[in-house]
Amino acid sequence: MNNAGYIPALGRREWTGMYDWVIAAMTRERVWRSLVLTTLNPRGGEVIVDLGAGTGSLGIMIKKRAPGARLVAVDPDPEVRLIGERKARAAGVEIEYQTAMGDAPVGSVGAASADAVTCSLVLHQCPLETKQSILENAFRLLKPGGRLVLADYGEQPTPLMRMAFWLVQMTDGFEPTEHNRRGAIPQLLLACGFKRTEIVERVPTLTGLISIWRATKEV
Ligand SMILES: C[S@@+](CC[C@H](N)C(=O)[O-])C[C@H]1O[C@@H](n2cnc3c(N)ncnc32)[C@H](O)[C@@H]1O
Q1: Which residues line ligand 1 (CB under 6 A)?
Q2: In this structure, is the dihedral angle defined by the CA atoms of residues 143, 110, 105 and 91, taken in order, positive or negative?
């Protein structure tokens, strides 16, 4: 963890420039991001917040699918923001960035005013209490009936996936990643107030199984 209290996208600041390349090569990115997009099903006019947005790859996909949606990308790291803003300009889409931690209030989106929240590959990097406070923030931001779509490493049920996930644990630290591997995410979702949570898909990758969860804030 750096002095600002977060782990950079690839674990070390000097590796951030390689992030997109590594994720594409190591995580079957197109498969799991497409599943996130299908699960999210973004629509024009919606307010969508991406917590820990990183270099904006998911946000760009969301805006291409639903150009009329408002996409607010939150990330504490100004370096990924620069990359994300450059990519969004090149893709011809508008993404509003906010440099902040995922558990901080989102200045331009009030409580109970987001239609959907996404958070991908963030929670496994965060200490347990931060995972919880990011999910609490997602719950707070969502309108009643709003949906949360998460993609991250969860349980690793086979020896092969456990071995693959070890690479992530070495990069991002054993302590925060181990909570994910032990199945903390569904419990945290329930503790934050989400009533209906389900695992939509689990994608085997070279870095372990990436799970996609959907949770709804009940009306
Ligand atoms: C592995 S990257 C994932 C980026 C992006 N969501 C994606 O799918 O490619 C993790 C991101 O989480 C951000 N991050 C780390 N700690 C955070 C926190 N407490 N709140 C919000 N974002 C955080 C990092 O700056 C980094 O950009």
Answers
A1: 6-9, 23, 51-54, 57-58, 75-77, 80, 101-102, 120-122, 125-126, 130, 134
A2: positive
